[in-house]
Amino acid sequence: MSAMNETGSTQSGRRKGLTRNVVILGFVSLLNDGASEMIYPLLPVFLTAVLGAGPAALGIIEGIAESTASFLKLTSGYLSDRVKRRKGWIVAGYSISNVIRPLIAVATSWPQVLALRFSDRVGKGLRTSPRDAIIADSTLPEFRGMAYGFHRAMDHGGAIIGPLLATGLLLVLQDTPQENLKTLFLLSFIPGLLAVLLLFAGLKESPADGPLPVPSSGFNFRAAWAGMPAGFRKYLAIVLVFTLGNSTDAFLLLRAQQLGVPIALLPAIWVALHVVKMGFSVPGGILSDRIGRKKVIVTGWIVYALVYGGFAFASSQWHVWALFMVYGIYFGLTEGVEKALVADFAPTHLRGSAFGLYHLAVGFGAFPASLLFGLVWQKFGAATAFGMGAGLAMLASLMLSGLAVKTLEIRNGI
After folding, report:
1. How far apart are alpha carbons 151 and 202 in whole angstroms?
2. Do 148 and 20 contact (CB within 8 A), yes or no?
3. What is the secondary structure of 190-245 as a DSSP string?
4. So what's the pLDDT on residue 3?
5. Does residue 211 form part of some domain?
6. Which residues contact residue 239 at a Cβ distance below 8 angstroms, ignoring those fewer than 6 apart?
7. Is 307 exposed, middle or buried (0-12, 13-18, 19+ CB in 10 A)?
8. Per-residue pLDDT tens for 65-102?
9. Sequence-distant (≥ 6) Cβ neighbours of residue 361 within 8 angstroms
């Protein structure tokens, strides 16, 4: 396949690392995340203050939701390789999420929120691996860090817009706090609809830039796993260890509230976090293109461990604000870079499956991570729970540091 066919872009676009599909998917993520983040920073408060749920229920909801998404990411990635098309999975996934998510407004108990979050994450599970794979299909290897960094930056841009909209609407709405939250959740449907319409109109997939043909027989999960490099399998095991200490960020918001951050400022602190995420995502991706993915990921994981250790000992509001800012650096150094490393490892015709396996490893650890964190917090306190997360992150950092460099030398000198 020629470079032109693999990227499906102009020479100018390839030089910049930002092809048409990458840019379109970036703006779709901006709109979709804007809709999602109108709700997410306020969800812990809605569950605890309005519906009367506790930390354990929050851990169950988020753990099941994220694990569901991750298991479906394997299936959708595999099937997008199998049928040699990606766009349909992406459109279906975004559509489901943006229809289901606003219905949290009508929930009257935490099990109903669980059911809606489960359905929302089904949509995420259908779209994510095919979307990540089509970015690799549309980008030259030497620009993958930049491409995935750009996508994450746009996603975080939506996470800035969403809470700002939420804050503005909460200041304007005149009903009771409970009714204001419900109205806000319903209004999140508008940016979500715009995201789906942009996908229909803008995302292009031709046979030239789709995945390479795969055998019509004998192509299954086991064959896909067997086709992955040994270094990739080791990398997934290390990612799993890290994920066991990476519980839902809803606990950080709960910790912020516990340390005295007013409910009205929770969206603002969420915005500040995503400003830092957005600012570091592209530089983090470009840095990985230049010095290698492994060094950047290890650095990011160490930052995560330090932040969680800080939350364990935090005692005032300013500690929370400072820790959230540093936490954003971790995301900038890891989110896009981890995906770029997956694309480096993956055989071209198994890109969807490789991303599915990566997300499966994350999901396999997501449920026990959030459930265990919630139970430890409830029984032993926040400091113990955050200390546990910091310890697992440091262990994963050491494991990745010790992984032989030759197992990571795929295409770009990592």
Report:
1. 15
2. no
3. HHHHHHHHHHHHH----TTTSPPP--SSS-SHHHHHHTS-HHHHHHHHHHHHHHHT
4. 36
5. no
6. 338, 358, 361, 362, 396
7. buried
8. 766 777 788 888 888 888 778 888 999 999 999 998 88
9. 70, 236, 237, 239, 240, 243
- Residues written for the chain: 414
Q: Which of 158, 171, 388 is nearest to 277 (CA)?
A: 158
Task: Please give the C-alpha separations between residue 336 and each of 36, 143, 220, 297, in angstroms, as whole numbers.
Answer: 20, 12, 27, 10
Q: Is residue 3 part of a domain?
A: no
Give the Cβ contact number of residue 191 at 10 Å: 22
Q: The whole model's pTM is what?
A: 0.76
Task: State how far the Cα of 76 lies from the Cα of 99, in Å rounded to an integer.
Answer: 20
Instruction: Average the pLDDT over 221-240 and give the result.
Output: 84
Give the CA distances from residue 193 to residues 182, 187, 197, 198, in Å, rounded to whole numbers and listed in that order.
18, 11, 6, 9
pLDDT mean over 6-23? 60
CATH code at position 52: 1.20.1250.20
**Residue 2 located in a structural domain:** no
| Domain span at 118 | 15-202+217-407
Query: With 60 as the cut, is the pLDDT of residue 411 above it?
Result: no
Does some domain include residue 9?
A: no
Assigned token pair, 290:
């230049």
d(CA 294, CA 131) in angstroms, rounded, equals: 23
> How many other CB atoms are there within 10 angstroms of residue 282's CB atom?
23
- Of all residues in the chain, what percent are helix, strand and coil, respectively (each to 5)? 80, 0, 20
Whole-number percent of the chain with pLDDT over 70: 88
Count structural domains, the chain.
1
Calculated CA dihedral for residues 103, 109, 114, 119, nearest 10 degrees = -30
When mean pLDDT is compared across 83-87, 295-299, 324-328, the lowest value belongs to 83-87
